[in-house]
Design a protein that fits this description.
Number of helices: 3
CATH topology: Alpha-Beta Plaits
Strand order of the largest sheet: 2-3-1-6
Distance between the termini: 24 Å
CATH superfamily: RRM (RNA recognition motif) domain
Structural class: alpha+beta
Number of domains: 1
Shape: globular
CATH architecture: 2-Layer Sandwich
């Protein structure tokens, strides 16, 4: 399925589909983040935020297909150890 900008804008207006992950280890990239959350449900978008040099800023976002997946991921992964660090996961 191709997602247009209009589709994405409509989804962004619905709260609860996206989680924010803070305190990510430096070696975690978008692919590793997606892999860590894939068992909670279908992921529409996943990204670790980087600085101008391509280095992780230590946080990222995972957008799920539905609110229940995001809630489950936030509940189970908040304060979990991820590559040796305790991450914080909140619903946006």
């Amino acid at each position: 399925m191709i997602q247009t900008r209009d589709d994405r804008s409509a989804r962004e207006k619905q709260p609860g589909f996206t989680i924010r992950c803070d305190n990510l280890p430096e070696n975690v990239d978008s692919l590793l983040l997606k892999k860590a959350f894939k068992d909670f449900g279908r992921i529409e978008y996943c990204r670790v935020i980087e600085n101008d040099y391509g280095e992780s800023k230590g946080y990222g976002f995972v957008e799920f297909e539905n609110k229940e997946s995001a809630q489950s991921a936030a509940k189970r992964m908040d304060r979990a150890k991820f590559n040796g660090r305790e991450v914080r996961v909140t619903i946006r």
